[in-house]
């Protein structure tokens, strides 16, 4: 084995040993953990991303415009949450490897990348959206609306950087009952 090949092999082994001893779940330096909402308050929309040294480019923020909750049919107490689109771009020289969607802390979608520098997910990729219960009138604190559902979209790249968007959406009233008045006809 030549000296160059031996040095390369030793370097790969050293890198593998370093990665094997890295603490699981360790946050990168400068990572900002999300601030949980106060008791009885829905999560306010927000963004987070792990920070790299100032000279290195960062993963872009996730673009997740307009999370909506639409009622399927009033008597079903079922609504659909969806976004117009979701998009994120990796930092220079890296690839997006994953973008997950969680609703009420349950992962409902996992998108994986394969040698792509950005990921764009249109709303049609999630069909009609993600089914959730609409909730009874006033359950979110607004008498004319239904329940609140929190959501989080997270993305990660091959360089280890992550980004997240999170917020809440209030659904329309789910179980509505409409009673028509009884009309008497005089003959």
Question: Tags for this entry?
Answer:
1 helix, Immunoglobulin-like, single chain, mainly beta
Shape: elongated
Sketch the topology as an H/E string, one letter per element. HEEEEEEEEEE
Unreliable spans are 21-36
Structural category is: mainly beta
Which percent bin holds the helix content?
Answer: 10-25%
> How would you characterize the largest beta sheet?
5 strands, antiparallel
Number of helices: 1
- Record field, number of beta strands: 10
Question: What spatial order of strands do you see in the largest sheet?
Answer: 1-10-9-5-6
N- to C-terminal distance: 108 Å
Q: Nearest-angstrom radius of gyration? A: 24 Å
Query: What is the name of the CATH class of one domain?
Result: Mainly Beta
The CATH topology of one domain: Immunoglobulin-like
Mean pLDDT: 76
Residue fraction in strands: 35-45%
- The appropriate CATH architecture of one domain is Sandwich
What does this structure look like?
- This protein has 187 residues and is mainly beta.
- The protein has a domain of 130 residues: Immunoglobulin-like.
- It starts with a helix and ends in a 15-residue tail after the last strand.
Quick summary of this structure?
With 187 residues, the protein is mainly beta. The chain is built from one helix and ten strands; from the N terminus they run αββββββββββ.
Ordered list of secondary-structure elements with their pairings:
Elements: H1 3-21, E1 46-49, E2 68-73, E3 78-82, E4 85-89, E5 96-103, E6 106-116, E7 118-122, E8 130-133, E9 145-157, E10 162-172
Antiparallel strand pairs: 1-10, 2-3, 3-8, 4-7, 5-6, 5-9, 9-10
């Amino acid at each position: 084995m030549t000296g160059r090949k031996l040095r390369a092999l030793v370097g790969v082994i050293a890198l593998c040993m370093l990665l094997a001893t890295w603490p699981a779940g360790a946050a990168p330096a400068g990572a900002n953990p999300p601030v949980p909402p106060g008791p009885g308050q829905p999560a306010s929309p927000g963004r987070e991303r792990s920070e790299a040294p100032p000279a290195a480019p960062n993963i872009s923020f996730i673009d997740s415009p307009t999370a909506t909750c639409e009622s399927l049919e009033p008597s079903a107490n079922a609504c659909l949450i969806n976004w117009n689109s979701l998009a994120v771009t990796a930092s220079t020289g890296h690839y997006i490897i994953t973008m997950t969607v969680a609703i009420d802390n349950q992962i409902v979608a996992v998108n994986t990348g394969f040698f792509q520098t950005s990921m764009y997910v249109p709303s049609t990729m999630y069909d009609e959206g993600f089914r959730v219960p609409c909730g009874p009138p006033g359950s979110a604190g607004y008498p004319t609306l239904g329940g609140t559902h929190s959501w989080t979209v997270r993305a990660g790249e091959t360089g280890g950087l992550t980004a997240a968007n999170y917020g809440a959406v209030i659904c329309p009233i789910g179980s509505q009952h409409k009673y028509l008045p009884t009309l008497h006809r005089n003959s």
